[in-house]
V-ATPase proteolipid subunit C-like domain-containing protein
Amino acid sequence: MGLAFGLSLSVIGAAWGIFLTGSSLVGAAVKSPRIRSKNLISVIFCEATAIYGVIMAIVLNGLMKKPEGGIENGSFTDEWNWSSFYFAGYGVFSSGLSVGLTNVASGVAVGIAGSSCALADAQDSSLFVKILIVEIFASALGIFGIIVGIIQSNSCQFPYDVAN
């Protein structure tokens, strides 16, 4: 579930940001067609949040393997350390959820900043770089989220055999 939440919420955040940026970009390009190509960077920043979710999904998927040993008649024996399974499972869930929620916030923030960047650039081209800096700071939220998710997932050790 953590892997699914991390990936799906990251894609939702990216889509929401692209919607916000793209709609303003298309509307502002009617007045000033010169902004179309250089404001596409705002869409790229939104898409980065989806990529962060994919990276975290790959990291979390690498943690999970099929357990070996200690299985009798298709079910686990009592020799397993169930508290390690619970700890690792909740760790994967919380890291995926934190990355997903952070990327929703990052996608919306980048979308709003990208929308403002397109509208301001249509009015005055000297404002593009100034507002792009704000958009970069909004994109950093997604980077912080994936760093926190990786730190959380580092403590998730699933036992693979009865000895663990």
Notes: The chain has a mean pLDDT of 86. The two ends are 24 Å apart (CA to CA).
